[in-house]
Amino acid sequence: MIKTHGYAAQSATSAPAPFDFERRDPGSNDVHIAIDFCGICHSDIHQARNEWKSSIYPMVPGHEIVGTVKQIGSAVTKFKVGDRAAVGCLIDSCRNCDSCNAGEEQYCENGATIWTYNSKDKKGNINFGGYSDSIVTDERFVLKMPLNLDPAAAAPLLCAGITTYSPLKHWNAGPGKKVGIIGLGGLGHMGLKFSHALGAHTVQFTTSASKIESAKKLGADEVILTRESNWHVPHAGTFDFILDCVSAKHDLTPYLALLKRDSTLCTVGLPEEPLAIPAFSVGLARKSFAGSSVGGLKETQEMLDFCGKHNIVADIEMTSFAKLDEAWDRVLTADVKYRFVLDLKTLNNK
Ligand code: NAP
Ligand code: ZN
Ligand code: ZN
């Protein structure tokens, strides 16, 4: 067994604290990765605080993992010791249903998607995430990270990146399309970068006046502050696709009014409380409200390669385990530009 140091939440009300545990020795298909960087996703906070009512403790959060291969199993072909490697939101699935065979393991039809943390493996052991110094994962669920990307700034691609890239591709964001991104946080700023890189006319919606200028620098063709009532009226019926990246309950009605006939608003945000959809706001012009969850391994690798080619990484603020509580508080007040990344060198219980 591999001694591993990390940070865990022991309950919905306790802050993550130092926690030692063991990883399995690598099996023949496993890759043992020494973690260098792990992004802080809002989902880490939702789950540590049991906001989705499905939490398993102790919980070591973290699913934006970049590290260095330390050891490989005898049958591993994709990696060698010393390679840069990455792990995202899922680490296993049934591997046999139509979704898994299509590379959409996050939608495993046997309900067997195994998430990187807040889940159990096939033997019933709790899985621990990337707020820790190592991880052991089957190579099928390990990604190759382009070497031209800064590994710390690339860590958020593993969740914030793929979660926004996947729906933008699915709904054909590109030249000639007007795309809106709601919420300029970790996910939103990646959605903005991807929509811009894919060639769509991209409009950022934000509740934060302080983010307007940087949204333009990130690639927004227009930025709309959504604080005043009726802010949406001049833009009604003009959008081909809108991606909602908001972490808290909010009113969808004005955003649905922005869609053209037959267009879609897709949410990737996962607020604790349900979102209301007035029937008139979709029915009168055959509009759709949709959702999307992360992305499969094939598309995640495609997204990483796209980022390598276009030099796309997250805008990050490096942080340490000593400042983890403060970082989480700042995520909750939408005060991060635009993703915190933990440097595993700062883990103090090593
Ligand atoms: P984040 O960094 O906290 O960003 C959320 C943004 O939403 C904030 O920066 C803010 O943007 C806006 N916002 C926050 N509270 C708001 C409110 N009350 N009303 C309106 N806007 C508000 O979070 P994140 O890590 O990007 O995650 C966003 C959501 O996606 C979370 O719910 C997370 O769990 C979920 N998620 C889903 C998936 C998936 O597969 N579907 C994957 C990862 C994460 P402005 O300041 O610009 O308004
Ligand atoms: Zn995430
Ligand atoms: Zn499956």
Write the layout of secondary structure elements.
Layout: E1 2-8, E2 17-23, E3 30-39, H1 42-48, E4 65-72, E5 84-87, E6 90-92, H2 98-101, E7 114-115, E8 134-138, E9 143-144, H3 151-154, H4 160-170, E10 178-182, H5 186-197, E11 201-206, H6 212-218, E12 222-225, E13 239-244, H7 253-258, E14 259-267, H8 279-283, E15 288-291, H9 297-310, E16 316-319, H10 324-332, E17 339-343
Parallel strand pairs: 10-11, 10-13, 11-12, 13-14, 14-15, 16-17
Antiparallel strand pairs: 1-2, 3-4, 3-8, 3-17, 4-5, 5-9, 6-7
The protein binds NADP nicotinamide-adenine-dinucleotide phosphate and zinc ion (2 copies).
One zinc ion binds at residues 41, 43, 63, 159.
